[in-house]
Amino acid sequence: MTLSPLDSYIYQFVYAAVPLLCALVVGVVLGVLARTFGKRFMRTLRRLRRVWRSPRTMQVLIVEDNPDSRETLKRYLTRRDYDVAAAGDVRTGIHLLNEKRFDAIISDIALPDGTGYTLLSEARRRGIRALGIAISGYPYPSDVSESGVTGFDYHLTKPIDCNHLCSLLKKGCVQFS
Fold first, then answer.
1. What is the C-alpha to C-alpha distance for residues 139 and 90, in angstroms, rounded to an integer?
2. Which end of the chain is more exposed for a tag (fewer CB within 10 A), N or C?
């Protein structure tokens, strides 16, 4: 049995039209959901995109009051496939701890509304077993030993060697997974 030219065009049309129709229906459904539920629905879609990524990226919280240092560190880690959230003070850092699960917390010691020790103590009190990395402009040995006593796993002196920081994050990722 041979196909007529008309049958051939119909099959080609069906094969092209079905995927386009499915894409149109999905687009309309997503549009209706976005319009109905607004920002909450869009946040859910973004979370789904993160879930579908493979392998899971390490979630890092940076708490640094200097905006230039914070953005530079965030940009550096984001380019190396870390999922980074940043805060400029303890209050915002604690708020982010409520929003999301973090694998690592990188915090300046001296912050405008408290200390990095306060932030990490609060995280530990909540049962968060994230890798703790203190960053400080004070290289004195007493500060370095104090970071271990207060829950931080590592203490880095500013300016930070970003390659060393990434090696600590990779080591911590293996240790805490």
1. 22
2. N
Record the pTM.
0.65
Structure tokens at 148: 């271990």
Residue 177 has pLDDT above 50, yes or no: no
Q: How far apart are the first and last CA of the chain?
A: 61
Residue 109 has what DSSP assignment? S
Where b means 16+ CB within 10 Å and e means fewer, 137-150 reads eeeeeeebebbeeb
Check residue 10 and give its pLDDT. Answer: 75
User: Quick one: tokens of 1?
Assistant: 């049995």
Sort 118 into a burial class: Cβ within 10 Å, 0-12 / 13-18 / 19+.
middle
Name the amino acid, one letter, at 11. Answer: Y
Phi, psi of 133 (to 5 degrees): -125, 115
Of 176, 175, 173, residue with least CA distance to 58: 173
